[in-house]
Amino acid sequence: MSAKAEILARVRAAVTDLTAPLGARGETPWVDQAAASPAETIELFVENVIDYKAQVVRVGPDGVGGAIRDALTAYGASSVVVPSGLDPAWVSALGDGVRIVADEGLGSLDLDAIDSVITASAVSIATTGTIVLDHGPDQGRRALSLVPDVHVCVVHASQVVHDVPEAVFRLHPQEGMPRPLTWISGPSATSDIELDRVEGVHGPRTLHVILIEA
Amino acid sequence: MTAEPLTEPTAGPLQATSPTFVGMPKFPYAARTALGNTQQRRNLAHATGVIRAKRAKVVAEIDRWEELRQAGADAKDELLGHMAAYLEQLETNLTKGGATVHWARDAAEANRIVVDLVKGTGATEVVKVKSMATQEIELNEALEAEGINAWETDLAELIVQFGHDRPSHILVPAIHRNRSEIREIFRKEMGLVGRPAPDDLTDEPKRLAEAARLHLREKFMRATVAISGANFAVAETGSLVVVESEGNGRMCLTLPDTLISVVGIEKVLPTWQDLGTFMQLLPRSSTGERMNPYTSIWSGVHEGDGPQNVHVVLIDNGRTHVLADPVGREALRCIRCSACLNTCPVYERTGGHAYGSVYPGPIGAILNPQLRGTASDVDKSLPFASTLCGACFEACPMRIDIPKLLVHLRAKVVDAKGRNTVEGRAMAAGAWAFGDAKRLARLQKASTLGGKILGNRQLPALPGAIGQWLSIRDIPELPAQTFRQWWADRERKGGAS
Fold first, then answer.
1. How many domains are contained in chain B?
2. Is the CB of A25 inside 8 Å of chain B's CB atoms?
């Protein structure tokens, strides 16, 4: 008997005492916190992102390019990699102070030599201060937002949901082309040495969030 | 040989005890050694105290926490009741996504599958994401036996690996080491296998983490094969989920060409929407954070993004044996958060090594004897490594009734031993004494006589098994009067006051 057949046979034999039919629990339960108002959801999101020691800058729709430029200057980034689908207006606002690298088959070592990355995002969660990337064209493949040390991430207020279940619902993989997801809650961190928290290990040590509000 | 009790599960074979833990002493003996390690006791008291407080704070933020726990338990119970259907659905969807699914009955089979896959790529080294499943099957040892270096990339696992040591906690495996020990380990070991620790390395955690970042970076950049576990595997969508903090997981899951994930068959979630529950329960219970820094989710192969050669190895290794026990099976709901360790007064003092398994603490005390059976000294003793205080059940996000399972397993251990033991004889004597009211009254009267003879009414040191038992326990003084005598006196003196 194949390992698969044998394991499935064992599994079936193990639960002959259970009689509830498949899916008897009904719809997957959805347990979440209620949002008081959209404005409070945004405030909670900002508060929780800052709590992770990430930076948050709030701008209007016209202020994104300038805010990205200011951030890269502040971190002393001399190079930045941009995903192919990033808003061209954001890229053109960067000016000459920084070397802009398009992602054309960059290897890991190429990425490691680049100081920073700019991405958009898919969904954010207020109760946890989490930003989710689905690595669409304005976010790029996963390695882009992983290897460079500074991650500038643009979040639109309309993308911020109140709690985890709603985010999960919005991120349901599409039939035929599921996307990889990366959930980011602050910069990388470890508490492995005497439980002393250190921000910044392997992932970007700096997370800079630009929040667009209408 | 004692006959197997009737309630003994029959569906799948037990897990073989891995070589590392063969011949482990009984818990009380191993614990005694651990209790003598004052450094470890200090570290553990600090660590468990800090995580407990953080957990309590973030759990209190969710007013529907009890509903969440119930939703988590219900999702896992739905899985356990129909595991065959969900495993087949998972395989179908993983395959549709471009992954190759392998099935392993036990540790040896899983190791052989992984070793063959790695050899097939020609790689002589792999980078690893912290994974309890691969620790359970001792995959690193199997790879090394075939000349393949397995590099742990989680900071704590790296400390354990470099220290030629064993993990002592599910979440923070190197919690028994302090910063100066870690500095010494890094200075001694890093240079042997790659970029050495800087000469001026101090014992500041920030500097130590930086040394690990630099050391591992070159390994991430050149690795072509990564090995991971998975926190969740979603049947509905064929998605695997890895929850982590440092970014080492993302490095392993993203940069290499080949990704092999070893996943216990109980890690499955029936639906995608179940993540809405579990991604609230796990981080808050585990690290005491609202959310862990990084979570990666992938569904097979993603064209042009990440590993293009993706494998998933589904392992049984004793799990179907646990599943067959109607009482014990709820232990398979466990999501390895370690909340029960942090809240356990026994674990806090003994640490993880005394449990003789990669699964320590209260969950280890119920999981190991079920996965491996109760033939060995350590597995026989684990159900007793608890005060039954119930703190673990309160903390468990999956509502696993650990105290109930401990009692269930205690009964099995005692049943298997039969009556001809100290406990068996004591219980038989108890049954005889309590079986007749007059006999009990005479015996109780005799015991007060013992108290009178002893004078200060303290028991002297006694020889044998009883003496051993008493040597670590404080026994109340023997009373001068039994309750029956006191009641009779009170009635004589005129009843209730």
1. 2
2. yes
